[in-house]
Amino acid sequence: MEWAGIMINSRTRLHGVANGTMTGQRYIDEVLLPHARLFRGAVCDKFVFMDDNATCHRTFAVQDCLDSEGLQRFVWPAHSPDPNTIENVWDALGRQVDGRNYPRTNKNTLIRALTEEWDKLPQKLLDNVVQSMVRRVECCITLHGGHIPY
Protein backbone atom coordinates (compact mmCIF):
# COMPACT_ATOMS: atom_id res chain seq x y z
CA MET A 1 0.00 0.00 0.00
CA GLU A 2 1.27 3.43 -0.90
CA TRP A 3 0.39 6.85 0.48
CA ALA A 4 1.07 10.33 -0.83
CA GLY A 5 -0.19 13.84 -0.35
CA ILE A 6 -0.91 16.39 -3.07
CA MET A 7 -1.78 20.07 -3.19
CA ILE A 8 -1.27 23.07 -5.44
CA ASN A 9 2.43 23.42 -6.31
CA SER A 10 3.51 20.57 -4.06
CA ARG A 11 3.39 16.89 -3.21
CA THR A 12 4.86 14.55 -0.66
CA ARG A 13 7.12 11.71 -1.57
CA LEU A 14 5.43 8.39 -2.18
CA HIS A 15 5.49 6.42 1.06
CA GLY A 16 5.11 2.69 1.36
CA VAL A 17 2.97 1.44 4.22
CA ALA A 18 3.90 -1.93 5.71
CA ASN A 19 1.99 -5.08 4.79
CA GLY A 20 -1.00 -6.25 6.75
CA THR A 21 -4.38 -4.84 7.62
CA MET A 22 -4.58 -1.09 7.95
CA THR A 23 -6.23 -0.19 11.24
CA GLY A 24 -7.01 3.20 12.69
CA GLN A 25 -3.97 3.01 14.95
CA ARG A 26 -1.67 1.97 12.10
CA TYR A 27 -3.06 4.86 10.04
CA ILE A 28 -2.19 7.22 12.87
CA ASP A 29 1.28 5.75 13.43
CA GLU A 30 2.32 5.18 9.81
CA VAL A 31 0.60 8.00 7.91
CA LEU A 32 -0.86 10.80 10.00
CA LEU A 33 1.89 11.41 12.52
CA PRO A 34 4.98 10.92 10.37
CA HIS A 35 3.65 12.40 7.14
CA ALA A 36 0.39 14.35 7.19
CA ARG A 37 1.27 16.66 10.05
CA LEU A 38 4.72 17.36 8.60
CA PHE A 39 3.22 18.13 5.20
CA ARG A 40 0.77 20.51 6.86
CA GLY A 41 3.63 22.15 8.76
CA ALA A 42 5.63 22.66 5.58
CA VAL A 43 2.70 24.25 3.76
CA CYS A 44 0.65 26.28 6.20
CA ASP A 45 -0.92 26.02 9.61
CA LYS A 46 -4.44 25.57 8.27
CA PHE A 47 -5.51 23.41 5.43
CA VAL A 48 -8.18 20.81 4.89
CA PHE A 49 -7.02 17.20 5.01
CA MET A 50 -8.83 14.79 2.69
CA ASP A 51 -8.55 11.03 2.90
CA ASP A 52 -10.38 8.33 0.97
CA ASN A 53 -13.04 7.60 3.60
CA ALA A 54 -11.74 4.10 4.31
CA THR A 55 -13.21 2.55 7.45
CA CYS A 56 -9.87 2.68 9.25
CA HIS A 57 -9.78 6.45 8.69
CA ARG A 58 -13.07 6.90 10.54
CA THR A 59 -12.15 5.60 13.99
CA PHE A 60 -12.48 7.73 17.10
CA ALA A 61 -8.73 7.41 17.63
CA VAL A 62 -8.05 8.88 14.18
CA GLN A 63 -10.44 11.78 14.80
CA ASP A 64 -8.81 12.40 18.19
CA CYS A 65 -5.40 12.43 16.51
CA LEU A 66 -6.57 14.85 13.81
CA ASP A 67 -8.06 17.12 16.47
CA SER A 68 -4.94 17.03 18.65
CA GLU A 69 -2.72 17.83 15.65
CA GLY A 70 -4.97 20.61 14.41
CA LEU A 71 -5.73 18.79 11.16
CA GLN A 72 -9.16 19.71 9.82
CA ARG A 73 -10.73 16.89 7.81
CA PHE A 74 -12.71 17.55 4.66
CA VAL A 75 -16.12 16.07 5.36
CA TRP A 76 -17.81 14.26 2.52
CA PRO A 77 -20.25 11.34 2.32
CA ALA A 78 -18.77 7.88 2.76
CA HIS A 79 -20.54 6.57 -0.34
CA SER A 80 -20.27 9.71 -2.44
CA PRO A 81 -20.76 9.13 -6.18
CA ASP A 82 -18.09 11.78 -6.72
CA PRO A 83 -14.78 9.92 -6.33
CA ASN A 84 -11.95 11.25 -4.27
CA THR A 85 -9.63 13.25 -6.48
CA ILE A 86 -6.61 11.17 -5.49
CA GLU A 87 -8.14 8.24 -7.42
CA ASN A 88 -7.45 10.18 -10.63
CA VAL A 89 -3.83 10.52 -9.60
CA TRP A 90 -3.51 6.81 -8.75
CA ASP A 91 -4.99 6.01 -12.17
CA ALA A 92 -2.42 8.21 -13.92
CA LEU A 93 0.38 6.66 -11.86
CA GLY A 94 -0.83 3.16 -12.74
CA ARG A 95 -0.87 3.99 -16.45
CA GLN A 96 2.68 5.36 -16.21
CA VAL A 97 3.92 2.22 -14.46
CA ASP A 98 2.07 -0.04 -16.92
CA GLY A 99 3.68 1.84 -19.82
CA ARG A 100 7.22 1.08 -18.71
CA ASN A 101 9.28 -1.09 -21.04
CA TYR A 102 10.31 -3.67 -18.49
CA PRO A 103 8.16 -5.97 -16.40
CA ARG A 104 7.75 -5.69 -12.65
CA THR A 105 9.21 -9.01 -11.57
CA ASN A 106 8.89 -8.61 -7.82
CA LYS A 107 7.68 -6.27 -5.09
CA ASN A 108 10.93 -4.28 -5.02
CA THR A 109 10.89 -3.51 -8.73
CA LEU A 110 7.23 -2.52 -8.49
CA ILE A 111 7.97 -0.15 -5.60
CA ARG A 112 10.91 1.34 -7.50
CA ALA A 113 8.75 1.80 -10.61
CA LEU A 114 5.97 3.45 -8.58
CA THR A 115 8.43 5.80 -6.88
CA GLU A 116 10.17 6.77 -10.14
CA GLU A 117 6.89 7.37 -11.96
CA TRP A 118 5.40 9.29 -9.01
CA ASP A 119 8.34 11.69 -9.19
CA LYS A 120 7.74 12.11 -12.94
CA LEU A 121 4.02 12.90 -12.73
CA PRO A 122 3.56 16.47 -13.93
CA GLN A 123 2.78 18.88 -11.12
CA LYS A 124 0.21 20.44 -13.46
CA LEU A 125 -1.77 17.18 -13.32
CA LEU A 126 -1.75 17.26 -9.51
CA ASP A 127 -2.69 20.94 -9.48
CA ASN A 128 -5.60 20.25 -11.84
CA VAL A 129 -6.84 17.45 -9.60
CA VAL A 130 -6.79 19.70 -6.53
CA GLN A 131 -8.44 22.55 -8.42
CA SER A 132 -11.17 20.19 -9.63
CA MET A 133 -12.02 19.47 -6.01
CA VAL A 134 -12.30 23.17 -5.29
CA ARG A 135 -14.76 23.50 -8.18
CA ARG A 136 -16.77 20.47 -7.02
CA VAL A 137 -17.31 21.72 -3.49
CA GLU A 138 -17.79 25.32 -4.60
CA CYS A 139 -15.44 26.75 -2.05
CA CYS A 140 -12.20 28.60 -2.26
CA ILE A 141 -9.01 27.09 -0.88
CA THR A 142 -6.12 29.48 -0.68
CA LEU A 143 -3.36 27.02 0.00
CA HIS A 144 -0.66 29.51 0.86
CA GLY A 145 -2.83 31.59 3.17
CA GLY A 146 -4.73 28.69 4.67
CA HIS A 147 -8.13 30.42 4.25
CA ILE A 148 -10.95 27.96 3.67
CA PRO A 149 -14.40 29.59 3.57
CA TYR A 150 -17.48 27.36 3.61
UniProtKB/TrEMBL annotation:
Top-rank lineage group of the source organism: Eukaryota
Under Gene3D superfamilies, the record lists: Ribonuclease H-like superfamily/Ribonuclease H
One GO MF term on file is: nucleic acid binding
Q: What residues does the Tc1-like transposase DDE domain cover? A: 39-104
Query: Entry's InterPro entries?
Result: RNaseH_sf (IPR036397), Tc1-like_DDE_dom (IPR038717)
Q: Pfam families this protein is in?
A: DDE_3 (PF13358)
Q: What is this protein called?
A: Transposable element Tcb1 transposase
Species of the source: Trichonephila clavipes (Golden silk orbweaver)
